[in-house]
TrEMBL record:
Residues 1-23 form the signal peptide. Keywords: Signal. Gene3D superfamilies: TolB, C-terminal domain. This is Pyrroloquinoline quinone-dependent pyranose dehydrogenase beta-propeller domain-containing protein. Residues 39-425 form the Pyrroloquinoline quinone-dependent pyranose dehydrogenase beta-propeller domain. SUPFAM superfamilies: Soluble quinoprotein glucose dehydrogenase (SSF50952). The lineage of its organism: Eukaryota, Fungi, Dikarya, Ascomycota, Pezizomycotina. Pfam families: TrAA12. It comes from Corynascus novoguineensis. It comes from the Eukaryota.
Length: 426
């Protein structure tokens, strides 16, 4: 029995160590890893590029090239990729767009021939040739989005199922934005715009378009289910939350994954729903909140928010899944067959001990919905994460953007250190 226990322990140790090992092959000029990273079961990784400036959201074009939003003077960089043994590496890197640096927003039209980027103020469209990497003159299709220095991201999503539609999200003016109790303010919303109409006459964000969702504090990324066409968004919630004078901010409110129906469904029951912000917040640590019967994801009214009648939070739309408070989701992408969504969590600052700084997987069922219920705390499967948080956030793995190609490879940006990784199914 003793020998068996030793053997079992050795196997477990080998399995654990294996999860810390990257792909044996290495791309040229990518250097050695600076910190210890842990992989989930069934994954391996390699470093793709390390000379980028604050890389954020990414897309893969129809030729398999990776387009990366950068900070600084370059808005979008184009990475032409090549196979090198069992990994993929960069064959060439070039500036694609150098006008008015983008924040995070980037998307391609359904046919891949139009590239969209966003700034704090506008959404821009460019004719795009994936084979040559040439872009045409930019055209402003949405404007009047600037709200202030906080929540500057304007994430974009184009639809395969409704190709003339582009979704644009705009966050709150501050941590708590009282004016957003009125959807006409057009903050803390997701709005849908016609691409063809925007190319003829620029949309005004506040005045034009349709509200897909409101009361949704800061949507940082959106994704369309590749099989069912459902629209999903990840949302970052408010900070420094108190309830009845008690500080409950360390583990509340929950970050969340919200569902918004199918764009080409004329009877979409999710269209135009209110998700509670700024008066209601989703629960994560229900024990510290102390409301009888409250479950994970249920909405409650914190201190200092716009007043609403008692019990009204129960009438607002809840998230579909919920995540640890302050983990700061930054991007979401589905795999090719829609059986999983990958979420990049940028990491916390507004809690006593750091949390996040990881990529997690959420599994989806054959109905196009997550397999876990809305009140689950175990819906996240670890994929890629830091082992040691002591050097976060300045010198650690801090994921920002995701992209997935036709071969199922997951591209992942680290905006703090300028890296792009590739995660492979082992």
């Amino acid at each position: 029995m003793g020998q068996f226990m030793k053997l079992t322990g050795l196997i477990a140790l080998i399995s654990t160590l294996t999860n810390y090992v990257c792909a044996q092959s290495k791309c040229p000029n990518t250097g050695d890893e600076q910190f210890v990273l842990r992989l989930g079961d069934g994954y391996r990784y390699s470093k793709l590029e390390l000379a980028l400036w604050a890389p954020h959201h990414m897309v893969v074009d129809t030729e398999g090239n990776l387009l990366v939003v950068e900070g600084g003077s370059v808005s979008v960089r184009r990475l032409v990729l090549e196979e090198l043994g069992d990994i993929v590496c960069v064959q060439s890197s070039s500036d694609l767009i150098s006008e008015d640096a983008s924040n995070t927003g980037i998307a391609l039209s359904a046919d891949g021939k139009t590239l969209f980027t966003s700034t704090e103020e506008s959404v821009w469209a460019y004719d795009y040739d994936a084979a040559t990497g040439q872009v045409g003159q930019r055209r402003e299709i949405v404007t009047n989005m600037r709200v202030g220095l906080q929540h500057i991201y304007r994430p974009l999503l184009t639809s395969k199922y409704n190709p003339d539609t582009i979704l644009v999200a705009r966050g709150a003016l501050g941590d708590i934005d009282p004016d957003t109790t009125d959807p006409a303010v057009a903050r803390s919303v997701i709005k849908a715009f016609s691409i063809s109409e925007g190319l003829q006459k620029t949309h005004d964000y506040a005045r034009d378009g349709e509200v897909l969702a409101w009361g949704i504090r800061e949507v940082v990324a959106m994704a369309e289910h590749p099989v069912f066409g459902g629209i999903w968004a990840v949302e970052s919630q408010m900070d420094d939350v108190h309830l009845n004078g008690r500080d409950i901010h360390n583990d509340n409110p929950a970050e969340r994954l919200t569902y918004h129906g199918v764009l080409n469904d004329t009877e979409n029951p999710y269209k135009g729903l209110n998700y509670g912000y700024p008066s209601c917040a989703p629960a994560w640590d229900t024990e510290s909140i102390g409301i009888d019967g409250l479950q994970v994801g249920d909405l409650f009214k914190p201190d200092g928010v716009p007043d609403i009648p008692d019990g009204e939070c129960a009438n607002r739309m809840k998230g579909r899944l919920h995540f640890d408070a302050h983990t700061a989701p930054r991007d979401i992408k589905f795999n090719v067959n829609g059986t999983a969504a990958y979420i990049a969590f940028h990491g916390s600052w507004n809690r006593d001990s750091l949390i996040g700084f990881r990529v997690m997987r959420v599994d989806f069922g054959p109905d196009g919905q997550p397999v876990h219920p809305a009140n689950s705390k175990t819906a996240q499967v670890p994929v890629f994460e830091n082992v040691e948080m002591a050097h976060c956030p300045l010198n650690c793995f801090q994921p920002s953007g995701l992209a997935i190609d036709k071969k199922g490879r997951i591209f992942l940006s680290n905006d703090q250190l300028g890296y792009v990784y590739v995660i492979y199914e082992a």
